[in-house]
Specification:
Blueprint lengths: L8 E7 L2 H5 L6 H7 L9 E3 L10 E5 L2 E5 L4 E4 L5 E4 L1 H7 E3 L4 H13 L7 E4 L4 E5 L5 E6 L2 E3 L8
Antiparallel strand pairs: 1-5, 1-11, 2-3, 3-4, 5-6, 7-11, 8-9, 9-10
């Protein structure tokens, strides 16, 4: 029998909580689009029971059927745009924050400095959600959303 390792792929993920269920202001655009899709259409995020009390259980309609999303679950957008739920323990065992390229941070710093908005660099992080560049008054200058990477490459011991 041959063995295989899954290729590292970058995905987008959003953790659904009771608070986020009731206030969709933090939802990524792709999740809002899935929510506004036609009921029971593939790729739609919808309420299981439209008459249930809020916050309620959600489901994602996929080619393989409907999959429940409960509070705490991550909703993942795969490499082909497909949506599927993932339990928090599986997510933690499978994914880690994707590294933000240093060039992006440097570019953001230069843009802020040149605009006079950033006079000092502070990175505030609440991984895996976002990293923010702030000025010396801790006013947010730039917020960078962090995506997660599946099965990162294995680095040799050095």
């Amino acid at each position: 029998m041959s063995e295989y390792r899954k290729k590292p792929v970058v995905i987008e993920a959003f953790q659904m909580t009771a608070e986020r269920r009731m206030d969709n202001s933090e939802w990524p655009v792709w999740l809002g689009e899935a929510w506004n899709g036609e009921r029971d259409a593939e790729g739609t995020l919808q309420r299981v029971d439209i008459n249930a009390a809020l916050p309620d259980t959600l489901e994602i309609v996929t080619l393989k059927g409907k999959h429940l999303v409960t509070c705490g679950d991550y909703i993942i957008r795969g490499v082909k745009g497909e949506l599927y739920p993932c339990k928090p323990d599986i997510f933690a065992a499978t994914y880690e924050p994707a590294a933000l390229p240093a060039a992006d941070l440097e570019r953001a710093w230069k843009m802020g400095r040149d605009a006079g908005a950033v006079t000092a660099f502070n990175a505030i992080s609440d991984f895996p959600l976002r990293t923010m560049l702030t000025n010396t008054d801790n006013a947010t200058v730039l917020e960078l959303r962090i995506r997660a990477i599946a099965h990162p490459p294995i680095w040799p011991n050095v």
